[in-house]
Amino acid sequence: MTAPIREEPCWAPDASPGDAPGRATTGAPSARVTGGPTADVAVVGAGLAGLSTAYHLIERDPSLDVVVVDARHPAAGASGRGTGLLGPQVGPAIDRAARRYGPSTARRMYLASVSAVERVVALTEELGAPCGLRAGEQIVATRTASGLASLARQARTYQALGLDVPVLSAAAIRERLDVPYHAGLLYRSAATLDPAALSGALAAACAAKGVRFHDDSPLRGMRPGSGDTPTELLFPSGTLRARKAVLAVNAAAGPLGLPVGTILPLQVHAIATAPLGPEARTALGGATGTSLVDSMSLAPYFRLTHDDRLVVGGGRAVHLPGLRADRAAALRTATWTWLEERLRRLHPVLADVPVTHRWSGQIGMTTDDLPVVGRVGGHPDVWYIGGCCGHGLAMSVAHGSHVAESLVEDPSAGRGPADYPWHRDRAPRVPLTARPVRGLLRAYLSGMDREARRTP
């Protein structure tokens, strides 16, 4: 008898039996924003970026009155829907980063992403919450000639920059994962975990330190403060006034009209199996904790969870704004079906394994592959975090730490947080309200999808 498939808007793959899918809470009841509450710092968005900001703020200055507000609840967005890959990635591929920003900056960018991975692993220990953490390696691999050429360019750049990212042959990949890829790059600083569980642990730690939470409060607008006048954050049932504000709202920046450039909202997809048997676990990285990412955009990637399920993500990325609901639903179902077909072809032991969960979630993309972590409209006390381009699990925590440090750092001390290319106030702007531009974007995404489907 086939197990029933749970089609859910979000699901935490490593959730314990009986846990509400994808739900992360503070452990205490949280009311809507009503009336006119005040705070020293208001953080809007209770995903990993917002929770990391609140956590690092209160760690640096326990006297701060910090409030976290979410449109729904902690981890309701991308942080509760991720597939749990924790690897060193930020910005474009290393060879393109070296050409665009120079070798020295490209090297610093990569090392910053490695530090971000290490910080998340350490954070789970600080919080006393395992979060389904599995230390391991990550392989970015290919089965195409164009993929081999791309990985070769990256490998040469890593070597030139003195970075430890070795090339793996097909045989070396087989030693870790019994899958038919031609070659790959090995990232040693990697792990997998449940991002919703990490979000929940961060939320609980913040609440224990006195951070206040408000759920079910979507931001409707903002009036930035000036001098002694606080910033006003407008919600359906009240106005929150704060000396400083952090808008960790990712792709909601567009609907809110924030002047941070274009953060594209794209819906991505994933499936998960029932727990695998011993043979399948061994074949797919159970001994090494290795996850695999295809070098081709939208091609399937996979990892094992701590309870031996296989999570597979990838497939068509969908730009939802302006798309009819029936068309969006059809694309979602078709992508899940394709992911399951690719799952079956990944290894013979997966031919009959039940698929028990299918879900989708929204990420924020920029046209130059870089996040945006900076001030909103030039206001020194209003910050924005978003646009991690699908690599937010490690970098969101790092971004929160950076913003927290920036908010409490004394400018007169003559020092501040390190500066990277993503520490900027805005991304390139794309006029998505224009129908031809939306059409071109969807045609581009459809082309990427067709190319991924042609991959062996």
From TrEMBL:
Residues 40-405 form the FAD dependent oxidoreductase domain. InterPro entries: FAD-dep_OxRdtase, FAD/NAD-bd_sf. Residues 1-36 are annotated as: Disordered. One of its GO terms (cellular component) is cytoplasm. Gene3D superfamilies: D-Amino Acid Oxidase, subunit A, domain 2 (3.30.9.10), FAD/NAD(P)-binding domain (3.50.50.60). This is Oxidoreductase.
